[in-house]
Design brief:
The protein is α/β, with parallel strands linked by helices. 38% of the residues lie in helices and 21% in strands.
Length: 252
């Protein structure tokens, strides 16, 4: 029998986390694959987060906005993907050491392959942290990459070429990391909010989570089953958002 104070813990560090699907689908998938965990939200400082990571009950964590770059300094070692991305979104432990990884881009690439997208040439809208991790993952597929942004940051030349955002023409598969909706026949949108989670964002989250679970447990559900569960939770959250919106509109 596993006592509550013996259950392994995984954290998600970020803010805001009101719309995060991770606490729900990660616990669900862990149980179905024979792993019992508590998945907890944490919104505190880096120093407090590091103490949580050092606790023996903690087997890892997810990191999201705005801490992905800050998390680099908390890790004793970084995987090659984290080094190329310049940020950490997944933390696991190996031989007692805190290891930083990045599954952002790899999760999206896995989904794009399943969709049957042509990855010979891709365009990325935005050049923030998410864009860099996606560019790093696409570069491993030998993809020709153009990154569009308002101001060049310097990292773009490691994976492709940079152009001003105003020059984007929707000629090739485009990954939009921008905080607003972009319309186009070739656009894959990875941004989301409560009540509005595009299928591409949902599936990217699914495969990011699947790769993270492999780090924590060594085994998890088949990728297709993991993705199906994430879809169910995304739909449930969308329904909840709709109900709350209707309730607010009908307030007296």
């Amino acid at each position: 029998m596993i006592l509550p104070n013996q259950t392994k813990v995984i954290y998600i560090w970020g803010n805001p986390l009101d719309f995060s699907l991770s606490p729900f689908f990660q616990e669900h998938c862990a149980i179905l694959s024979g792993n019992r965990i508590l998945y907890k939200i944490f919104r505190g400082s880096a120093e407090e987060f590091l103490q949580l990571l050092k606790n023996e009950r903690c087997i890892g964590a997810n990191v999201t906005i705005p801490h992905k770059i800050e998390a680099l300094s908390l890790c004793a070692k970084l995987t090659e993907k984290a080094q190329k991305a310049g940020s950490v979104n997944t933390i696991f432990k190996a031989s007692g050491k805190i290891i930083g990884d990045n599954t952002d881009g790899a999760g999206l690439v896995k989904w794009l392959k399943i969709k049957g997208e042509n990855l010979e040439r891709c365009e990325i809208l935005g050049n923030g942290g998410s864009a860099r991790s996606i560019a790093a993952a696409l570069s491993e597929e030998k993809c020709r990459i153009t990154i569009f942004g308002r101001t060049e940051k310097g990292w773009e030349k490691n994976f492709g070429i940079f152009k001003p955002l105003s020059e984007w023409k929707d000629d090739f598969l485009t990954i939009s990391t921008l905080p607003f909706e972009v319309e186009g026949r070739n656009v894959v949108t990875i941004g989301y909010s409560s009540g509005k989670i595009p299928i591409d964002a949902t599936m990217m989250l699914a495969f990011q989570g699947w790769l993270g679970a492999q780090r924590w447990f060594g085994n998890t559900l088949p990728a297709e089953d993991f993705a199906r569960i994430v879809k169910l939770h995304a739909k449930a959250q969308s329904n909840q958002g709709l109900i709350l919106n209707l309730a607010n509109k009908n307030e007296i």
